[in-house]
Amino acid sequence: MRRFENVGRIKVFLKDKEKKNILKIIKELLVLLRSKKEIPYYYFKHIYKKKITNYLDYLSTKEVVAIGSSKRLHKPEYVKIFESKLTFALFCESESIQSPQLIGYNLGKTFHSGDEQASISSKDEFYSFLKNIFKSFNVNAVFFRPHSEFGGKGCFKLTKDFSYTEADIAFKKFNEYDYVFTECIEQHEAINKIHRKSINTLRFISLITSDDNIKILCAFMRFGIGNNIVDNASSGGFFVGIDKDKGTLDANGLYMLEYGGNEILEHPDSGFKFEGFKIPYYNEACELIINSVKKIPNRFIGWDIAITNQGPTIIEANSDPHIFLSDYAYGGLLKDQDMQDLIAELKSEEPYLF
Predict the structure, then answer these.
(1) What pTM did the predictor assign?
(2) Can you say how many angstroms the Cα of residue 184 is from the centroid of all Cα atoms in its chain?
(3) Which of 26, 46, 68, 231 is most buried per CB count within 10 Å?
């Protein structure tokens, strides 16, 4: 699969008018080959572009893999909490961590909601179950996510006035996945002006340093497009870097290379310009993450945060976030001293990873 992805990136690279000249590319590839001790396929994600002069500040594939696989950074008992959206939702509920209200879940044909449990094997039973949860929880919409999928795969939502046909379509999805269902949050009105069809989340990376300080390494914001209800860049959306000190959006929105690798200055649907947009409740989002890390002290975590009119809420967290996206959005994570220290720590303590 990775080989095919690399071929696709090279095709985009060949057509890109913003790439560096061939001599400069060859020189940089040779420097990276010597310094990183690996074939720098990752260079063709975005580092080949003219505007990127600090190419040594970007993480190599080996470094990204080392971060994701390091037992110093990830304890199995913590990782298991992140891997299941149900386990994470229950953890947040038990620890009073701000997150969307858990409405219910299913394990096969057994459906749970509140104190109720039901065995459902027909469309009519499923339709009645849905009607009951909307009535019991008095919510306007419910969001359904597979327990263990990522990138928005399999997600859908239903509003309280859903039709029997919609319930039938949803019932068929339950033959493929087990789902966790939560209340649909209402996005902050200022963010709705950019794009209201999806919940547009902030992706943060938190790090517990070797001297036990909790740091926010970087942040970027993801946006959906068209009628897509998810904002994931891997599902066709795009992302915008965030000035982590000011809490404002950068000028450029960025698509993954798999979706053309284009850069935009405004949302393609609303025409809203990104540069300088002040993210509501940004400082509160940072505080929420730091307080949550104290309750689940995995050393390296990716957090997806939504902003409502009342403040930030945690949508999910994971131990293996798309680090290359963060690297791209931040403009090279190795320009940050905490990331330099982390890589040096991994190299000294776990040299076999390199």
Answers:
(1) 0.91
(2) 18
(3) 231
